[in-house]
Amino acid sequence: MDTSDIREAASLGGETLRLKNYNRQLASLRKQTPFGQTPSRRRISLNSPLQENADPQKIAFLLHKQWTLYSLTPMYRFSHDNFKEYSRLLNAFIAAEKQKGVAVEVGKELNFRVTFSALLGMKGTQRDPGAFLVQILSKFQTSSKPAEDRVVWTGWFCCTSGDSLLESITEDFTCLPLFLANGAESNTAIVGTWFQRTFDCNFSRLKISALNLSWMAALWSASSLDHHMVPLEFLWSVPCSPHSLDISYSIHPDDAQALWNHVHKTLEEITQEEVDLFIDCLCSHFHRHFKIHLTATRLVRVSTAIASAHTDGKIKILNSKYLTGVLALLTELAIAEIQ
């Protein structure tokens, strides 16, 4: 069976998961979780509303784009009051880097410009530092229209519900551990180098483990979206020679919600045990139909109506209602990476 056959056949559509068949499996699944770790707990806070000062245009700009994730150590003597100066300095640095080290006068007219701006409304707690946006805009001109600026690269820095790290740093440091970039990797590298040299910080790619992808699937399935009937989708990778095989598995949102309600027992938090049961039940359902053990493969992507995440550290956020909840989870992962 080739990949397309598996993808088409695995889509459950409107078929209802046979929950009664799972009842018999729950006892044994509690003893055989796929990750073999001591159960942990996370509180459910995905639908925390954006603050009233959020800019709808900027929030809309962040949605439906693929962002590459990075963790960032605290920045030394960074100030939200110096955005104009930072723009001028980063402008000159980028120009110098693109001209292979040739000195560029600060303030010289260039065919691009850098902007820093506040990204309001995404704090999880009052202690969180303000998020901010960095953009590179390049001038485009056609024969029929005057020159206009177009965004060619965007990066944003945030800390949503980052109390665990904020408690341990001094006033000289600003903690924005989550960085998301969209655009050419060469621009990301140049901007990252400038920040590292200017604020004595360090960027690292933030990968998402299969375990955390499973958490995302469970958390996002637990949050119902009344007007978004988008399936829960998984992508598993099967290592084989000469080419790897990908298996796509799609579950109708009503079926995913019904299964989650069946395994989820507490209202305010989710346990590792519940996440394991949720994934194991889905894998058992797949095996019953196709005789393929997904537990022998590697989970690489999860997609829902809320967001889509890939193990290589890429995410696409799809719904503003759950933006702060998604950022809180990503902030938690970023903090764990740098601590």
TrEMBL record:
The gene is CENPL. Keywords: Centromere, Chromosome, Nucleus. GO terms for cellular component: inner kinetochore; nucleus. It comes from the Eukaryota. It is found in: Chromosome, Centromere; Nucleus. Belongs to the CENP-L/IML3 family. The keyword Nucleus applies. Pfam families: CENP-L. The keyword Nucleus applies. The lineage of its organism: Eukaryota, Metazoa, Chordata, Craniata, Vertebrata. It comes from Ornithorhynchus anatinus. This is Centromere protein L. Coiled coil: none annotated.
